[in-house]
Write a structure and sequence with these properties.
It contains twelve helices and 18 strands. The protein is of the alpha/beta class and 369 residues long. The chain folds into two domains: 172 residues, 2-Layer Sandwich (CbiD-like), CATH 3.30.2110; 168 residues, no CATH class. The longest helix has 18 residues.
Length: 369
């Protein structure tokens, strides 16, 4: 295990540690060894909310007093984090006198190539809070062992470039590997905070590079459909997943002139009913409510009955298609109304595209021209 257990959620799930916390522990151990010749194991650090975890070292190497490398294996607790089990390495060398702490991206850590992120273009993808934690750790080690605190910290992640392909980094313009992340140092299992943060960073990048049209998509099929319809580049597409509310609320505060919401009929039927979290564990398709909407839209009693008798929204779509009722269009209009309600008059012209499982468009609403 990479650190002392931070505790458990009310559901009994283990908390874990962020890449930033692991990098801070590795940096602390490496700098201590550089000054003393010995690696502390375990190595204890202090996090922003008072946690003081101790991390076991996976490895440590010292090169003739000129550099030291320490590695910590990330334990994400019970969160399904792509970086769980990743080896985070810090190599510390003496820096320029008076230079403080300089950061470098080693193998598996990305470099920022697009504006809009909280780091300048060309900087290693080591976020501000982990940088602050590492600077404080370096200062503490220097005070304890007579160092200057002027060091170069190079962070690496074993297989980080491959792992990064399963994250938002390529789309955000972070190339060459993972980001070193974390605001508290603690991973809350199934909080989905990282996904929501990635959505926000996606909006920030799109705004910074000047995109005037973005598409928020529930999955890869709707993403492909939206890109084909509008010719959007990859960094103008937001992997919304189930977090419609996160997209809409962030765009309300940070508007982009045009938004397309694209997704399967089941997900967007839930959005049309007012659900902003579209995950199956947190919302469901209300077929009875959808049947009421069919009747209110002038659909026949039989169409409404077919909707109620359906197993899924897609099943309801097929039954309504057979009767000549445009259920896809109705779902699109309802989803659009919900989206516009959340946006609350923000200058974001919105349209909705509803697809079936094959990516065929079955409903649209809003101005598309």
């Amino acid at each position: 295990m990479s650190g002392d257990v931070a505790g458990r959620t009310a559901a009994g799930l283990r908390y874990g540690w962020t890449t930033g916390a692991c990098a801070t522990a590795a940096t602390t151990a490496a700098y201590t060894a550089l000054l003393t010749g010995e690696f502390p194991d375990p190595v204890r650090i202090e996090l922003p909310k008072g946690h003081r975890p101790a991390f076991a070292l996976d490895r440590g190497s010292l090169l003739a007093g000129t550099s030291a490398t320490a590695g910590v294996v990330k334990d994400a607790g019970d969160d399904p984090d792509v970086t769980h089990g990743a080896l985070i390495l810090a190599t510390v060398t003496h820096g320029v006198p008076g230079g403080g702490v300089a950061f470098r991206a080693g193998p598996g850590v990305g470099t920022v190539t697009k504006p809009g992120l909280p780091l300048e273009v060309g900087e290693p993808a080591i976020n501000p809070v982990p940088r602050r934690l590492m600077r404080a750790a370096v200062a503490g080690v220097a005070a304890a062992h007579g160092g200057t605190g002027d060091v170069v910290v190079e962070l690496s992640v074993a297989d980080g470039e491959e792992l990064a392909r399963h994250t938002w980094n390529p789309r955000l313009g972070i190339l060459g590997g993972l980001s070193i992340l974390g605001t508290t140092g603690v991973v809350v299992p199934y909080s989905c905070a990282a996904w929501i943060d990635s959505i926000r960073r996606g909006v920030d990048v799109a705004r910074a590079v000047g995109h005037t049209h973005v598409a928020a998509c529930t999955g890869s099929t709707s993403e492909a459909t939206a890109r084909a319809l509008y010719g959007l580049p990859e960094d103008a597409v937001l992997d919304m997943g189930d977090f419609a509310g996160a997209v809409l609320k962030y765009l309300r505060r940070h508007p982009i002139p045009r938004l397309t919401v694209a997704g399967g009929i089941g997900k967007l039927a839930k959005l049309g009913a007012g659900h902003l979290d579209l995950h199956s564990k947190r919302s469901r398709v209300d077929l009875a409510g959808l049947a009421d909407a069919v009747r209110a839209a002038g659909g026949s009693k039989r169409a409404a009955a077919e909707v109620i008798d359906s197993n899924t929204a897609l099943d309801a779509l097929r039954r309504c298609e057979a009767l000549g009722f445009d259920l896809g269009g109705l779902v699109a209009r309802r989803a659009l109304a919900c989206a516009e309600d959340v946006l609350r008059g923000a200058p974001v012209r919105t349209d909705v595209v509803v697809i079936d499982r094959a990516g065929v468009v079955v409903g649209r609403a809003g101005r598309t021209g």
